[in-house]
Structure formats: structure tokens, C-alpha cells
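FORM 7B - TANDEM STRUCTURE REPORT

SECTION 1: FIRST PROTEIN
SEQUENCE AND C-ALPHA CELLS:
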Amino acid sequence: MNKLTLIASACLLLTGPALAQETTLRAVSGFATGTAFSRPYEALVQWINENGEGVLQIQSVGGPESIPPFEVGNAVSSGVVDMANVTAAFYTNVLPEGDALKLAQTTIQQQRENGCYEAVDTLHQEKMNVKYLGRTGDGVNFHLYLTKPIESADLSGLTIRTTPVYQAMFEALGATPVTTAPGDVYTALERGTIDGYGWPIQGVLDLGWDEQTNYRVDPGFYQVDVEILVNLETWEGLSDEQRALLEEGMAWLEEQNANNVDLNEQERAAQAEAGIETIELSEADSATWLQAAQDAGWESAMTVNPAFAETLQGCFQE
């Protein structure tokens, strides 16, 4: 009997961990599959699944067809999904302070060194019930795209599709803002209900918006932030090995941000080929444009959470 007991115990030791070791996380993207700001997330899913066999796997449940973009924050916060790829602009209903993440002028690697990452992660954990795993989008600026030309930084008389990212800025410059999901922009342009929209330098052609777009206004402003979030209970329930794998995968993904310099130039060339003309604001109007962006952004951040905004000012600026 003692021999049988020892054999049975040995079998449990050998088979138990193997059966319980691998965990599968359900993840969703706030952007359509295959588009500019979903592709990094898709690369992360592939990296984890290739390197995490027997340890951790990610099952992607899709994009906006699964969960509307502005509900993704709620979904990961409440545990409907375990992970999410989403810009903070889509979850300001859950975490208003997230709007300030666009103001970063430093890279995510610098933010991990200067304390910014820890501050942002802590806020996400305390107020949104998620682990802020990291971000993509460094080096990618936003632009205003139009169906009609402008000659200065004055946007009076124009109806512009916005998100929280640039709503305050465009309003300060005189525009009338309209908020819609990305999937509604093409129709709004086609029907003439909006005169333009804000969007990063990347991704316009992915969405087909170039067919209804005539101009891009330079210079760009703000910096794209697309976060990878993990439900906090899910994160805390993972083993050390599983958490380390996610962190390693995120570090690998953040290294890919360096490719954005070349990707931006490729996108500029593709937009020009598609017939989108560049409106270069004068030096004076460019200064007005960029100052309006910074003033509106930091004023909003200070209104929402002064202490957090002051922390970011100390580590978001070079």
C-alpha cells in the first residue's frame, strides 16, 4: 500500500501542474482587425501564443464588431474580457484622467525609467480595476483631415468629428465638435454632415476615409496612446511565470514603436498618392495650432485631477 501511495503521489506531482499550468485569456481590440492600431496588438497576441505554449495563450474575440469601442474600457474593467487593446480616449467614461496620456512627449521606455509608468499604472489599478501593461503609438502624431481647405488655424464654421483626444483643442480654435464611433466617419463625410475629423498620421487609408478626404493639416499634434490593459483580478490570478511572459511580450512590442518613423513616412506618401493634399500652416499659425493643443490638453487634465496632471507634467515632457 505504501508503494502504491508513493506512486500515486508521484503521478499527481507530475500531472497536476501540467494540467493546470496553461491559461487562456480572452482579449478584444477597440480597433478593427488588420488596421493600423490593431496590428501591434495582433502581433502581441501572436508573440504570446508562440512563446507561451503550455504557459499562457490569448484568444482574440475580435474588434468593434464584438464590443463597441467606447465600451471596451467597461468590458475589461468589469472582467467581461481579460485583456483589451484600446486608446484612453475610448475609456474616459471610466477613467477621465486617461485623456492626459496623449500629452506624452517621452517614450514609454523613458516613462518606465522616470516614474510616469508607475503613476499611470497605479491610477489604472485603483480607479479602473485594470493592470496598465503598456502602450504603443510613440512617435505617431494626430492631424486634422478636411474635405475643404483652410488658410489659418481658425476652424470657425467647420463641423469636425472629434473624440476626447482633440475636442477641447478644436473647440478652442472655433470648430463645432461632433462625436461618433470610427465606423460612422465615412458616412458622415459622404453626407457632408462633417467637414473633417481628427486622426493620426497612420490608419486613414485602412479605413477607406481617404475616398472622402481632400486635405491633411500639418503640423501634427499630441502623441498616439494605445494601451494594453489586463483586468486586475485576472492579472493577480496569474502565476509569476505568466505575468513575466506578458511583461516580456509587452517590452518586445514597445520596442517596435521605433518603426513608427518609417511607417509615418510611408503613410504620408500613400496619402499623397491617394489625392490627399497637405496644408502646411504658416510659422505663426503653426505656433498657434500647437499652443492651442498643449493649453487645451493640460487645462483639461488639471481640471480632472490636478495632482495627477502635475505628476505627468514632471515626467511626460522631455
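SECTION 2: SECOND PROTEIN
SEQUENCE AND C-ALPHA CELLS:
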Amino acid sequence: METKYNFVKNKIKSQILQGFIQPHQKVGSETELMKEYEVSRHTVRKAIDELVNDGWIYKKQGAGTFCADRSALKSGTASQQTKNIAVITTYFSDYIFPSIIRGIEGYLSKNGYQVTLFSTNNNIEQERRCLEAVLQQGFDGLIVEPTKSALPNPNINYYLNLERTGIPYVMINAYYEELEPTHLIMNDVEGGRIQTRHVLDLGHQYVLGFFKNDDIQGTKRMKGFIKAHRESGIPLSPKNIITYTTETKETVPVEELRQHLTNTSELPTAIVCYNDQLALMLLDVIRDMKLSVPEDISVVGYDDSFLSVASEVKLTTVKHPKEEMGKEAGRRIYNFIEQKLAPSRHFEMTPVVYEPKIMIRNSTQGLGVKEIN
């Protein structure tokens, strides 16, 4: 359990890291802090003393305590660079993330930089902790994949403080629209459209779409799904769109597919998936229901990950640039640092948007076709 003085100490640090307390701005008086955090004077004094010892604040005799200017510790000369870039991804141990990280590390290590990895597990609170670590440890730059990018993000203040302190950042796979940062993304609307057009053009009309709706990639792929139906003149029932979140990704898609395969008089003939990971999970459900892919149901994934060829069913899927995206993110953050561009200049850079390409394998076939040539 966190001690009371540590609680106060961490709250004040968080206020500083979010930029709510600026360098040389007065921190609240002992009485104000006691009232705000509902603790004793002794607790406040202990928290303040530790913050002073750690270099977060300083005291002026007779005037009170003030926020220290920690950016002065990294005043911008090359000799003071740590040559260390932070990389924050939603996950890094599996799926497409090792390939993205390999691209980042390959470019930066070739240019004399080290990479330190952080993972948020697509959790807002964990993203906050990662951003606080980046701000505290004085990295030269940050490459970040936004967390739950389709939802309002309470951590925007940390990004604004990165700008204030001169730490450049680049976003990959998604970006927070409020910030309009330099970013590298896929054209996910087009990706969802070509996923769906592929099966519609094969004659499928009862198509289920499964989309993760707390990440912007999922909402854009769903937009492409709807767009493809409109283009094809095929009516789309709302019940054919299944959405889920980070917290429900292991349960909702499986339960919904089982219901569609058991509780309806007509079976869906094709499934469009948010990613390959989900496609493999749904393949297991289809097998359990004694159905075959693609003979009974065609399945399309997204990302062209190693999972797309990991089972006997090789997934038709949309190609993700992965390592190429990582290299370009590394190149951009390197240039920001080496060229010493002002933070305002970073946001003038043209974003990189990768156009999708469908990789056709044996998980899809024409409606009524029993064998693929």
C-alpha cells in the first residue's frame, strides 16, 4: 500500500510532468497541500523534502517552494544527448510489433542511438506511467503508438509537456487528432474497403464484420466495411457489424460468432476481421461448429502477420508495412533530433500514409465454389 507522503509526492510530480506546474512556479504552501490532499503537515513536509532532494522542486527562504527547471539538465548541446529513444507500443511481445520494433532499432542503432521499449497493453493508466518515465528520464525523442486512439485521452497534457520541454515525438499506426503530430499510418478505411470488396466480389452477401472500436484503426476499417457494401449495392444489416473493446476482445467476438452460427436460419458465408489475431480465434470457433474454411465460410484478416500462415488455413489478409513503418519512424525522429528543429516545425511534416494491398490465400473463395484452382 502506498504511503501518504509518497501519494502526495507522486501527485505533485504528476502535476509537474503534465505541465500544470511550470518551472519556477510556486508549488502550493504547506497549508494548501494539507487541505488539498487531506494529510498532516508532517506528511507534506516529508514529501516536499524528498522532491527537493530529487531535484523536482527547490526552496526559497521565506518565499516557499518552487518547481525546478529540469529542462536545464538537457539544455540542447550534442554532448548532453543521451542517444536514447523511447518507444511506446500497445504491445511488443507478439504479433506485428517485433517487426515494427526491428525496423526502428535497425535504423537508429545504425545511427548511434539506443532504443528503450515500453508497453501500455492498450491501457490508459499504463500509458500515463510510460509517459512519466519518458519525461523523467530525459530521452532525446519518442516514437509512440497511441493507446485506445478512438477514445478521448486524458494523457494529452503529457504530450503537450513533451513539446514544451523540446522532446520530439512521432506516432505510428494511429494518432491523437487533437495534437496533429507527425504520424505514420495505414489507409485503414481503404484497407477495410478492399477486405470487404474481396468477398463481396466473390458473390458473398451475408458478411459479418468484426471490429475493435476503441482503436481508431478499427473504426476506420469498419467505415471501409460499410463503404464497400454501399459501393456494391448490397444492403447491410446492423446486426452484421460486431464491435468489441480491448477488455472484451477474448469473449465478445467468439460469443457473437457462435450466436450467428447457431441462432439464425441463414448462415453467414464470409467474415471480415479487424486483424489476423482475431481471424485465427474465429477459425477455432468455426472448426468447433464443424464448419470448414473456405468451403462453408470465407475469412479475411488484416496485417499479413506471421499468424496469417501459422495454421493449415492460410489467411487472405491486408498487408501491413511493419518493418518499413518502423524504419521510417526511426528516420523521422532521428532527423528531428539531429536537425534540432523547433517543436512547432515537427507538426508541419507531411504524414506518411501507407496504401493497403490484399494478399489472397486459401481462406476465401467464391460463393458456391467447392475448390480453388
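SECTION 3: OBSERVATIONS ON SECOND PROTEIN
DSSP finds twelve helices and 14 strands in the chain.
The first strand starts at residue 57 and ends at 60.

SECTION 4: SIGNATURE
Preparer initials: ____
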